[in-house]
């Protein structure tokens, strides 16, 4: 869970492929991917236009290291995502393996508009399933929305609003931060956590507090 596969189509005699993360838990019969259509893109508009029964190519093996096995021990695991990058976290949470070791898990989905919170019902269902271990928080940057914080993730961390909203502290002693999505959000949040929370990037040879994946 948390990995990606490459989807491909033949376009003008050429195979065009892109990596997309699974939303479904491993072992599910139906594979689910969450992607946005890039109008000028070579692949996404064609994927969007596919009809039931049409075929596409997919790699046999999934790949990627954005997985729970790579996360060190901590009390609170923060899962921060922008846009379609919520996918890997939903896969991890739906599978549920390896999560009992965390006292708390915080899932944060940041989008521009409330209508982009496509998986909010699933997030709410997962919050119920985890019976207090999981807390969800939505963030909307371009409008006010019910139950959502307004703004951008780095600013909400800097101001303390995000921690106040979920009732948990983001500290180097007790937290690990997973960042996935917009490269600017990932970079800005990493820099902020380094400067203000004494956190560093997590590496196998040198354990740290931040695990990240850029989404493009």
Structure description:
The chain has 216 residues and is of the alpha/beta class. It folds into two domains: 4-58, Translation factors (Elongation Factor Tu (Ef-tu), domain 3, Beta Barrel), CATH 2.40.30; 68-214, Nucleotide-binding domain of ferredoxin-NADP reductase (FNR) module (Rossmann fold, 3-Layer(aba) Sandwich). The chain has six helices and nine strands. It has helices spanning 44-48, 87-95, 120-129, 153-159, 161-166, 183-197; strands spanning 4-11, 14-21, 57-58, 76-82, 104-111, 134-140, 148-150, 175-181, 210-214. The strands form two sheets. It has a six-stranded parallel sheet, with helices on both faces. α4 packs parallel to α6 (183-197). The two termini are 19 Å apart. The relative contact order is 0.15.
List strands and helices in order, with pairings.
Layout: E1 4-11, E2 14-21, H1 44-48, E3 57-58, E4 76-82, H2 87-95, E5 104-111, H3 120-129, E6 134-140, E7 148-150, H4 153-159, H5 161-166, E8 175-181, H6 183-197, E9 210-214
Parallel strand pairs: 4-5, 4-8, 5-6, 6-7, 8-9
Antiparallel strand pairs: 1-2, 1-3
Arithmetic mean of pLDDT:
97
Query: What is the N-to-C order of secondary-structure elements (H for helix, E for strand)?
Result: EEHEEHEHEEHHEHE
User: What fold name goes in the CATH topology slot of the largest domain?
Assistant: Rossmann fold
Tally of contiguous helical segments: 6
* Percent of residues in beta strands: 25-35%
Taking the alpha carbons of the first and last residues, their distance comes to 19 Å
Give me the Rg, rounded: 18 Å
Indicate the low-confidence ranges by residue numbers: none
Secondary structure category? alpha/beta
Query: What CATH architecture of the largest domain would you give?
Result: 3-Layer(aba) Sandwich
